[in-house]
């Protein structure tokens, strides 16, 4: 471990193979915590590369639970978080919209870290259990074409790493690997990061990891979602090509709105926002979900443009299909809870 620390302390990048080797040491219980801390801090100071992020993601996924998901064209729309903008749960809401239109969603998520309510927090406020069995998780996917994976449940080796990250108290490479380590094999992905200068590298990571098609976004003000508040930087990965582009809300027929218009609250407040939105209440929350679900549809390849995706998202909400999907998942969760009680 020490040789890797010395190398990156000299601002030398690690190869993918070297990062795989050091990542295995990071997850080895015998490796001293201080060495892991020294490595993560030094790597953060140097600045991570696509090879390094991909190497860690590969190893971390290899240690995840095998959920034995059937073969399928699954999409995850989990972002890295960390933008500090306290928006409502955009990607979680968008997941119900996309699933309502027939896209198979396997969404990776966690509790609040930088937001007032993380994905798992708001799901539980809605009455959806996040700590269900592996079989129940896959049953939900089979029945509803949508399931949620609570990261600590599927990554058992993360407990110690979480304690080490708390000791560091600053962002590390682990802040970037969450969306890359879904235990279910993904063909397509839509993910957001809060570093505009890393979108191309992050898309390169997705290419290394074998995604067939994906979109990375860094929104206006560094949001890890597509934002109504200005220019959004995207990179499309399509059949090995990386294609950068930018869009504003106005470019796709939506209206500008400041970030303050989509502020979230605690889990109960965000659950209320989600319900109102899925019932068709038109406002900045609604348009933000249209934008992100539209990009998600385009990333999945079910539409030929983001504008078509936004139209599909609008139709899915206003027809009641997205709300119906939410209610179906809540009902499934209630049945699981009753079975476990018995």
TrEMBL record:
GO cellular component: cytosol
EC number(s) given by UniProt: 2.4.2.18
Pfam families recorded: Glycos_trans_3N, Glycos_transf_3
Cofactor(s), by name: Mg(2+)
Enzyme class at the top of the EC tree: transferase
Sample GO molecular function, one term: anthranilate phosphoribosyltransferase activity
Cofactor binding remark: Binds 2 magnesium ions per monomer.
Residues reported in the UniProt entry to bind anthranilate 1: 79, 110
Glycosyl transferase family domain sequence ranges: 72-323
HAMAP family hit by this protein: TrpD
Cited NCBIfam families: trpD
Quaternary structure, from the entry: Homodimer.
Cited function: Catalyzes the transfer of the phosphoribosyl group of 5-phosphorylribose-1-pyrophosphate (PRPP) to anthranilate to yield N-(5'-phosphoribosyl)-anthranilate (PRA).
Family in the record: Belongs to the anthranilate phosphoribosyltransferase family.
Name assigned to this protein: Anthranilate phosphoribosyltransferase
Gene designation: trpD
